[in-house]
Amino acid sequence: MIDTTRPSKRELNKARKRADIVRIASRMFLKQGYAATTMSAIADALGGSKATLWAHFASREDLFAAVVDLHVGTFAHDVEEVLTGQSFSLPALRRACLRLIDCLLRENSVLLYKLVVSEGDRHPEIKDTFYTRGPVTLRCAITDFFATRFEWEEAVRLTQITAAAVTGYRTDVLLRPEPVGQPEHEAFVDNLIAHLVWPDEGETG
To answer: Where along the sequence lies the DNA-binding region (predicted)?
Structure first.
């Protein structure tokens, strides 16, 4: 009897080919930029026909979205690992902020961020793709975490402040001529938490 719940060999091969395309496209986008990475160049790098590439992705924008999903998926998994199932506490928030900083400063995260910043005005579609698939998704997870203790409106406010502070810190670190180590990351997060105004302060410890 045929198990219809398991993917067929054809489906598995199709999924593998798609993953190969996304992996190669990711490397090219991050190294060469969005404008310089054409579908023809990606097809040449794959060593196959353009028809194969177009069979999986209808446009360069669709392929870029898949690349963003690849990186955001890994990023989100690592951050949500310290958020999922957690009720709000200051130690849990500290762990989440430090993990977020670590993820934001990874090489591929930095390269993707620089690509969107440098080419987003000329190609607004990549800015929209990145923002909706990246920051918006992540902020939802952070808001859910805050909402385990605070009213929804307050959770949204705390998310906005925390995300702005951490991403601003990332930008500051990237602009510095000297490397910034873990002790400084921890000092920043401790300073951030100490200066946030917490509702019901007596219940947040």
So the answer is: 38-57
